[in-house]
Design goal:
Order of helices and strands: HHHH
Helix content: 40-55%
Largest sheet: none
Strand content: under 5%
Number of helices: 4
Shape: elongated
Length: 138
């Protein structure tokens, strides 16, 4: 698993919402407000993902979410979820007051990917011992 920083997620999101200059650099004059909002939104999205994933983990293997206070921090989800779920979720939240149709598009993509990447993995079939002699079939 490759570790991804919140800054990397932010930069990918800025590219998605067309906030990059022709040089490939971020436009600091238009992204300052987005940069200020990003840590809180990424914390919210990360907590949602971890909460869903924790449902399928043993209690002692559950991940305790850490608040993202700086874009230099690593996110706690794997690189695929960071590059898909976090970027689309962040774009949807940032665009909600700017462009509702674009926000809807990114929210729909987020929900589609959430359904794909956060499905439970099938568990192993295990034989159950009938300790009561009821001869039930499982």
């Amino acid at each position: 698993m490759i570790k991804v920083t919140a800054e990397e997620v932010f930069i990918m999101t800025m590219a998605m919402i067309d906030e990059m200059l022709e040089t490939g650099e971020l436009d600091a004059t238009t992204t300052g407000e987005y940069r200020a909002k990003a840590p809180a939104i990424l914390t919210l999205l990360q907590n949602e993902i971890i909460g869903i994933e924790n449902r399928y983990r043993a209690f002692n293997e559950q991940v305790k979410p850490v608040k993202i206070e700086s874009l230099e921090q690593f996110v706690q989800v794997d690189d695929i979820k960071a590059n898909t779920l976090l970027t689309n979720g962040l774009a949807a939240h940032l665009m909600i007051h700017e462009d509702k149709s674009l926000a809807n598009f990114f929210q729909q993509r987020y929900e589609e990917m959430r359904g794909t990447y956060l499905k439970p993995t099938p568990s192993k079939i295990t034989k159950k011992e009938d300790v009561y002699g009821a001869m039930l079939r499982y």
